[in-house]
C-alpha cells in the first residue's frame, strides 16, 4: 500500500526552478510606460505643431511660440492620466497576489504563488485559490468555483484524478492536488495571452480630429509655401527680404497661417475635459485607463456583461421553501445543515432564515440553540457533489430521526418517498426549469449509520447503501438562487431607459441565466444555448438581436459575439471580471473590468470599477455625455476657425498680401472666443446618448460659418488697404472684428441664452476691450490704438453677424421643412 503523500523535497524544488518549471509568470496588469508615452507623443498633431514651434524658436520669436504649450500640455495630460492608472492597477495586482500551501518534505508550507513548481503537492481547503493547473490526488467533499474561468456559477465536484484549473476557488471540503501546468502554460494564462496588451477606446471625436489634421496636413505645405511667397513679395521680394533681414517677419506670419489651420486648442481642451472627468470618476472609484473611454461610454448602444460577478455577487440566497410535511424540528435541521463548518455555498444560504428558527426551537425545548444539543453526538454524512446529498441523524430531541438534504432526483430516486415522490419530483422540475437550484429535505425513521471506512471510496459506497435501504418521506422543497447585486436592477433600468441594448453572455445554464435576467428587470422569456447559434458574423449579430440572453458561452464565443455586433455597426461595451471575459473585453469598443475580478481583465480594459459596484456606470455615463456634448460645441468653434484660417491663408497667399495676424494675435482671439468659454461649457448638463456623425454635424456648421468669417476679414483688409492702414492697425481691426463675430457665433451655440450665458458673453466682450485698451496687454499682442480702425471693424463685424443669423435661420427652416411629412 502506498505511503502518505510527502510532496517534493527541497532538492527537487531547486532542480525544477533551474529547469524553468516554476510558476513565475509576468502577468500583464497594465500597459507599459513606453507604450503610453509612444501613443501620446508620436502623433501627427504633435509633429505639425512641434515643427512650427521649433521653427519659431529658431527664428527667435519666443512669444509667438507659446502656442507650443498646447502640444506639450496635451501630451503631458494624456501620459500623466494613463500612468496614474497603470500605477493604481499594478498596486492592486500586487496586493491581490495569492499564496499557496504546498507539501515540502512532508510538511505543509505556505509559499508565494511564483514559488510553486511543477509536481508540487497543493494542500487545498475552503477559501483557497488555485495558483496552477493541477490534478486531484485525494479529496474529501472538495468543491471548486470555476466561474472566473468558465462563467458557470455552480460549484464543481473535485474527485480524485480530476483536473483543476488555476484561478478557481475552493468553496467546500479539503484535498491534495499535484501541480501539472505552471506559469505561462496554465489555462488561465493561456486564455489571457490571447488578449495581450490593453485595448484602446474608440473615440469618434479624436478620430475626427485626426482626420481633419490629416486633411490639413495634405494641404499644409503647399499653402504654407504660398503664404510664405506672398509675405516675401509683400516685403519687397525675396532678394530684398533676405538682404534686409525682414524675411524673419514674413516667415513668422507664414507660420501663423499654418498654426491657425491646426485645431491644436481643440485637442488640448478635449484632453483637459476628459482628464477632469477621469479625476472626478476616480473619486467615485472608477478608474479611467484611457482618456477617450469616457467619450466611448457616452456613445455605447450595446452593453454586454456576464451574469456572475456583474448582476450577481457569486453567493447563493434562499429563494423559498415549500413545506410538504410539517414534521417537528424540520426547520432546525435546515439551520443545522447551514451552520456546519464544511457547509457549501448552497447550504450556507439556509442560515439567514433557518438559523434563527432552529435557535428558537432549541430554546423552547430548554436546550442549547443547536439541534445537536439534544443529541451530543449526531451522526452526519457530509455533502459530496458526486452523490449530491448530505445527511444527519439525531437520537433524541425535537429533531429526532434521520434527515437527508440533496438533489430531488437523487434523494427520491428508485421509488423512495412513496406515492408523493412523483408529484414532488414534478414540482422540483418546474422550479428548476425557472432557473432555481432545488433541494429536497426528506426524513426517515431508519437510524443513520456512520461508516467506519477510512477509504474515501469505500465510505461513499457505504453511505449510498444506507440511502438506498432507508425509506424516505419528502418534508420540504427548498429553492436557492444566486444573490442579485443590490445595484443590478436600478442599473439595468437606467440603461434600458437610455435606449442602450443589453446582452448577457454567460457560461452558465440558459435557464439560470434567464432567471437572473428576469430578477434584474430584463424582460425575457428564455435564454438560448450558445452552441445553437450561427458562427458567421452577420448571422451571429442577427441572432443576438433576437436573443439577447445567452448561456453556455465560451470565452472565444464571447469575443466572436462582440466582434459580430461591432461589424453590424453597434458601439459595444463589455463588462467582465473573470479570465473568461478577457478576450471579449480586449475586442470591444470599450472594456469595463470589475475591480474585484482577475488582473487580466483589468489589464485589457479602459475603465475599471475599483470597488466592483455596478451602479457606478450610470454616473460614468452622465459624465461622458456632459463632456462630449460640450466638447462638440467647442469643436464647432475650433473647426470654424480652421476653415477660415485655410481660406485666409489661400487668399492672402494668392494676392501676395501681408497676412493680417501674428500667432500671438490668433491666440488672443482663440482665448476669448473658445478657450475661456470652455471653462463654462464644461459645466453644462447633457443627458442624451451621444450620437454618431460628429464630424458631419460639425462640418455642416463650421464650413459656412468659417466662410462668412473669412469674407469678413478679407473685406475688412481690402477696406483698410484702401485707407492705407499699416500692418499694426490692420491686425488691430482684424482682432476686433474677428473676436466680435466669434463671440456671436459662440452665442448661437449657447442658445437658448440664460443669465449665466449672457454674463459669460459680456465678460468676454470686456476681455476684448481690455486686450486692446490696456497698454501693456495691447503691447504684448502687438496691437495699436483701436479708435482709428474701430468704424471699419464695427461695420465688418455687423455684416458678419447679419450673415451668421441668415445662415442660422436658413438652417432652422431647412430642418423644419425636413421634418414635415
TrEMBL record:
Start and end residues of each P-type ATPase A domain: 96-193
Residues passing through the membrane, by range: 212-232, 252-282, 638-659, 665-686, 698-720, 732-751, 758-777, 789-807
Tagged with keyword Transmembrane helix: yes
Membrane topology label: Multi-pass membrane protein
Compartments, record wording: Cell membrane
Keywords recorded for this protein, A-Z: Membrane, Translocase, Transmembrane, Transmembrane helix
InterPro entries, per the entry: ATPase_P-typ_cyto_dom_N (IPR023299), ATPase_P-typ_P_site (IPR018303), ATPase_P-typ_TM_dom_sf (IPR023298), ATPase_P-typ_transduc_dom_A_sf (IPR008250), ATPase_P-type_domA (IPR059000), HAD-like_sf (IPR036412), HAD_sf (IPR023214), P_typ_ATPase (IPR001757)
UniProt superkingdom: Bacteria
PROSITE patterns the record matches: ATPASE_E1_E2, COF_2
Protein name as annotated: HAD-IC family P-type ATPase
Native source organism of the sequence: Lysinimonas soli
